[in-house]
Amino acid sequence: MPIHNQKLSQNLTRFNIPLLMGAVFAASMGTGVFTFTLPLMNLDEKAGGMWLGSGFAGYFLAKLLIAPLSGSYADTHGSSKPLLISCGLAFLLPLLYLLHPAIETLYAIQFILGLCAGTVRTVSMAAIGASLGGEKLSSRFAVLSAVMNSSFLLGPLLGGLLYIDKDYLPVLGTMSAFMGLAFIIFTLCAKHLPTHTAEHDLTEETSAGPRSFISIMAALFGRGMGIGSLIAFYPVLLKSSLQLSPGSTALLFSIPSLTTVLLLPILGKLLAGFERRLTTSTGMLISALALYIIGSCSTIPGFMFTGILSGIGAAISMPPSMAVCSELGCAKGRALGLANMAANIGFMTGPLFCGLMVSASGQISTPFKLTAIIGAISSLFILYEGMSQKGLKKSGLAIGVLSTLTLLMLVPHSLKQNNTPQTYRYSDVAMGTVVNLTIPGGDNSETKKAAKETVAIMHHLQKDLDHRNKRGSVGRVNHESGKKSVRVSDKAFATIKRGLEISEKSSGSFDITIGAITTTPFYYALDKSRFAGHKDLINYRLLEIDPAENKVFLPRKGMALDLGGLAKGTIIDAAADHLKSSGIKTAMVEAGGDFMVFGDREWTIGIRNPRGKGILGHISVKNSAVCGSGDYYQFITPVSKEDKTRKHHIFDPALLQSSAESIATTTVAPDAETADALATTVFIMGPEKGSEFIEKHFPNCSAMWVLPNMTIVSTKNFPTIKEQK
Question: pTM for the complete prediction?
Answer without folding.
Answer: 0.70
